Amino acid sequence: MEVMYQSTRGKGDLVTASQAILKGLSDDGGLFVPTQIPRLDIPMEKLSRMTYQETAYEVMSRFLTDFTEDELKYCIRSAYDEKFDTDKIAPIHQADGAYFLELYHGATIAFKDMALSILPYLMTTAAKKNGVTNEIVILTATSGDTGKAAMAGFADVPGTRIIVFYPKHGVSPVQEKQMVTQKGKNTYVVGITGNFDDAQTAVKKMFNDKDLENLLGSAGFQFSSANSINIGRLVPQIVYYVYAYSTLIRQGSIKEGEKINIVVPTGNFGNILAAFYAKQMGLPVNKLICASNENKVLYDFFATGTYDRKRDFILTTSPSMDILISSNLERLIFRLTGEDPAACAKLMEELSKGGEYTITPQMKAGLSDFYGNYCTEKETSEAIHQVFEKDHYVIDTHTAVAAGVYKKYKADTKDDTPTVIASTASPYKFTRSVMEAISSDSETMDDFALADALAKLSGTSVPKAVEEIRTAPVLHDCVVDAQDMPATVKKILGIC
Ligand SMILES: *Cc1c(COP(=O)(O)O)cnc(C)c1O
């Protein structure tokens, strides 16, 4: 059965999976969605004996149907290898009455690695299949995590180059150090003097600049995106929810067919949408619990049916969830409209013009798969403290938002369904906030001293990703004004 992809705002034109991955975003501004969600038609008894890589093949081959078995297995093998510090790839840790699904064992110790380690292979394979001979140039604006994970994925991948722009004064010291020490002949990191929005706006402008596209084309280049709107990032994220379920079966924690809840700390709505797709495939899932920090647009949306981005942007200790426009929600909205691209486009236009939209009562009824709540900064810190006190297990700030919301869910509903919490970053990535929650003498330490202190206190070891940047030489020191970004790209590609 061939799965094709259509735009959430389009006229129903269909593209193959590989074309959707190459394009990233549809020309009409919509996101690509599968025309149908394939069934997970494999006996659980068989799934529960599979490795992560084997599970990945079963799930991804059902969505990316124009990839051959050899192509897909090559991509999976190349992505999920020794870059991960455990051969389980996504292990489960039981603590404080829940199962924490650790998605941070890849190269940059955040869950972005789960998809960004395979995207480069999917993309270069897609280019080959579609006869693209141009070198692919990935342009990315980052507020910290995505840029590093994308570079780690694309570094030295033949046929690609990656250029990352980050706000020079808007990322944490560890995040900046991670980026400016990035190795690889095809990686370029540029600080800009503006903020993240300036970088993002300039990147989007370059994507839509026809003259630049022609200039690039005549020099043998074309742009693509590693952003979370790419279907090539979404599909690999479905895998670990299936794998989590089969792991729980294998270790005897649940019985075949028994339902689980899944809690996801949410920003752009990509990770939780993958869990929703897993449920649509037939994975026995009860509630999808959407956890927000103080930027609680989604909580308000689930409660009222109105999505309203007109509010202050709050900087929190879970920065990867500081977001007011959750792009991937559009894919759920499209489903709720009964797959009506005109209705979906209208709501998205209301959002971009007036800053809000309201769904119909009928659409709202379709949200019953979800439960939404949020944590304040204080509650987030308390959640880290509590899990550590109870089970000597350290979670990061983003995961803590999920753990805190799960507490609220249990209190609200008395539901005791076995629950998986997506653990999206290593505590070593947000060491200062984590240490402040579990120790009283962290204030005077620098970030590396804090990592050592965390290791001592928790009995875990400092991950390679942090050790590496301690002494790594700075390889990128370019800083430009946002307005000079296009000129910088041309210079990097040698086409000025
Ligand atoms: C990106 C990110 C999130 C949010 O994931 P979405 O798919 O954008 O909802 C949560 N936690 C961490 C650590 C992240 O890097």
UniProtKB/TrEMBL annotation:
Its EC number is 4.2.3.1. Signal peptide: none annotated. The keyword Transcription regulation does not apply. SUPFAM superfamilies: Tryptophan synthase beta subunit-like PLP-dependent enzymes. It comes from Blautia ammoniilytica. Residues 98-421 form the Tryptophan synthase beta chain-like PALP domain. Belongs to the threonine synthase family. Gene3D superfamilies: 3.40.50.1100, Threonine synthase, N-terminal domain. This is Threonine synthase. It is an enzyme of class 4 (lyase). It comes from the Bacteria. PANTHER family: THREONINE SYNTHASE-LIKE 1. One of its GO terms (molecular function) is threonine synthase activity. Keywords: Lyase, Pyridoxal phosphate. CDD domains: Thr-synth_2. Residues 5-80 form the Threonine synthase N-terminal domain. Its cofactor is pyridoxal 5'-phosphate.
